[in-house]
Amino acid sequence: MKNPNLYLLFFAYFFPFIVSAQDFEWKAGLYNFFDNTEFANSDYQIDQTMAGVRFSPTVGLQVDSVHHLFVGIDALKEYGSRNFQDGYTPTAYYFYDGKPFRFFMGSFPRAGLLDDLPKAFFQDSIYFYRPNITGLLWQYRNKGLDAKAFLDWTGRITVTDHEAFFMGGDILYRKNKFFSQFQTYMNHYAGTYSSSGVRDNGILHAAVGLDLTAITSMDTLSFRLGYLGGIERWRAVASSFVVRNGFLGEVQAGYKNIGMKSTIYFGEGLMAYYYSGLGNALYWGDPFYRGKFYDRTDVYYDFFKLSFISGRLMFSQHFSENRLFVEQSLIFRIALDQNTKKSEHKTFYGKE
Question: Residue 231's closest CA among 247, 243, 221?
Fold first, then answer.
């Protein structure tokens, strides 16, 4: 086996049996995505269809009640491709699970960890094609306070590749029906061995909200309003920062298997250096936020809502550039592990 990736796969599948079958853990995920965006004539977004399936087998060793080691792979097969597989992401990480803390370090799945960040931070396609965080993430949850901090190293410097990483955090505090939230990240995009230059861009979201779910018959009913701003600097061009300010509002409602989420942004357009030649390499947020006004409304139907199977059909309307654009998506996810057969499969945030 001259290919080092074959050694990784061999180790991933047989490591638990070699060490101790008594402490063996396993996970298997299947993530199908179909996202058809009808964005023709937009100056900010591109018209495309993204479709594929990700398969992520993982095995692990539970050292004791709180320490875990996992290794595996996340493989991508795009619909219509003639390739046997269209990409893979190695998974190997340490996991500490001791309430009220959780800690991840290595290359670990992104799903479920940063989902609450606005689309201005990470657009939908990030979850399709960048399934893992490579770095570390720390979480804390206790008595109405949820907090996390993360580092995602996204580029290793070479002659052609830029050194790049994200670092950020999220703090959510709940008191009865009210909540407040602070979210931020900074993307550091440096040069290569053949070309110097550093660009930094950050986003900050601070909001207050009202969650009325508990006093209604709805499964979800919440409102939030806050500040959304960007700060960035291209050091080769200027020593000062470019600051863009705006406001972000959100309404979310759901009853049984049907729901909607509407977000509206107005202010100065974000992503000041998008046209500098880097585009999506520098900005991972939704490019629609480059405009001064943007409204997105998602209407969805959950046709599967189980602890280990979820399926969602969604229709989205985007209003930007004085035009209305539409999008249709279908997401189907299966997540299995050694506890799947139990009546309640619990996670750090309660029942999935």
Answer: 243
Distance, CA of 304 to CA of 223 (rounded, Å): 26
Give me the CATH code for the 4-351 domain, please: 2.40.160.40
pLDDT tens digits along 129-162? 999 999 999 999 999 999 999 999 999 999 888 8
Residues, the chain: 352
Paired tokens of 117: 């960040």
pTM exceeding 0.85: yes
| Placement of tokens 């994200």 in the chain | 166
How far out from the chain centre does Cα 91 lie? 16
Residue pair 72/58 in contact (Cβ under 8 Å)? The answer is yes
What b/e string do you get for 298-325 counting C-beta neighbours within 10 Å, with b at 16 or more? bebebeeeebbebbbebebebbbbeeeb
Helix (H, G, I), strand (E, B) or coil at 187: strand
- The one-letter amino acid code at 256 reads K
Q: How many angstroms separate the CA atoms of 292 and 189, rounded?
A: 25
